[in-house]
Design brief:
Two copies of one chain form a homodimer. Chain A is mostly helical. The first copy, chain A, is built from five helices and two strands. Chain A is elongated, with a radius of gyration of 19 Å. Chain A binds a DNA duplex through helix 3 and helix 4.
DNA sequence: TGAATGTACATGACGCGTCATTCAATGACA
DNA sequence: TGTCATTGAATGACGCGTCATGTACATTCA
C-alpha cells in the first residue's frame, strides 16, 4: 500500500527526471543553435527543415509531410521555409497533381550549406548527448 | 577501424535519438502548458518558477538563485516574475543585506494555486514521461 | 454540375524569450 | 575616501512560434 511518503518521493523523482530532460534539451538545442547561427547564419529550426528536405530527396508534395516529422506547427514550418527561401537555400515548387500543395527543393547553395552544417550538427549532438 | 558506413549509421542513430528527445520534450511541455493554462491560467514557465519558490521556503535572496536552477535567462525570469506578481501569486521582497537583490515570497493565493497546480503537473509528468 | 465540406498553405496579431543595455548598489584597492 | 570594476535586476527592441483566420484548390454527393 502506497503511503503519503511514497508518493512524495515518487513525485520528487519525477520532477528531477523532468528537470534533467529540460536541461539536456535546452543545453543541446542552445549549443547547436548558437553554433549554426554563428557559422552558417541559420537557426536550429531552419537546419532541421533543411535536414528533412535533404534526406527525402525523392520528390513528393513536401510541406505537408514536413509538418508531420517535426513538432513545429504548420504555420511555423511555413515561416521557416519563408526564411530559407529568402536565404536562397530552398525553393518552393508547385505541385502539378494538387495545386494546393508545394514541394521543396534544395538549391545548390542549400545543398552545400546543408552538407557543412550537418557535420557541425552531428558533432554537437554527439558532444551533448553523450555516447 | 571506422568505415564511412559506420559513421553514417552512427549519425543516423544520433539524429534519431535527438528527434526522440525533441518530441518527448515538446509533447510533455505542450501538454502541461495547455493544461495549466486552461485550469489555472498560468503557463509552464510561470509554474516552474512558482514551484521553485515553493520548495525553497527558507528565505534567501532568491531571484539570483532561481536563475541558476532553470534554463531560463535572467531576463526571462524577471519577466515571468512580473507576470506572477501581477497575478498576485508572488511578491518581491527587498533584501536588507544586499539592496540590489530581491527575494520572492508566495502569497496566500500563490500557495493555494501552487498546491493544486502541482498535483496536475505531477500527474501529467507521470503520464508523459512513462513510469 | 454546383453547393457544401474539407484540405494545403499563407498571413497577421499577439505573447514570450533573448540579447544588449541600463541603473543602482557593492566591492576592491589606491 | 574616491575611483573603477562587478554584480543583481529591469527594460526595450527584436525575432520567432502560435493561434485564428483567410484563400485557393479539391472532393463529395445530390
Amino acid at each position: 500500500m502506497a503511503t503519503t511518503r511514497d508518493r512524495q518521493l515518487h513525485d520528487r523523482q519525477l520532477v528531477e527526471q523532468w528537470r534533467s530532460i529540460q536541461n539536456s534539451y535546452f543545453r543541446t538545442a542552445g549549443a547547436i543553435d548558437r553554433a549554426l547561427e554563428a557559422k552558417f547564419d541559420i537557426g536550429l529550426n531552419e537546419f532541421e527543415i533543411l535536414d528533412l528536405v535533404a534526406d527525402s530527396e525523392e520528390s513528393a508534395c513536401r510541406m505537408k509531410a514536413l509538418g508531420e516529422r517535426t513538432p513545429m506547427t504548420q504555420s511555423a514550418v511555413s515561416k521557416v521555409v519563408d526564411r530559407l527561401e529568402k536565404a536562397g537555400l530552398v525553393s518552393r515548387q508547385t505541385c502539378v497533381d494538387d495545386r494546393r500543395s508545394l514541394f521543396l527543393e534544395l538549391t545548390e547553395e542549400g545543398r552545400a550549406l546543408h552538407a557543412s552544417a550537418a557535420v557541425e550538427h552531428r558533432a554537437l549532438l554527439k558532444e551533448n548527448l553523450g555516447s
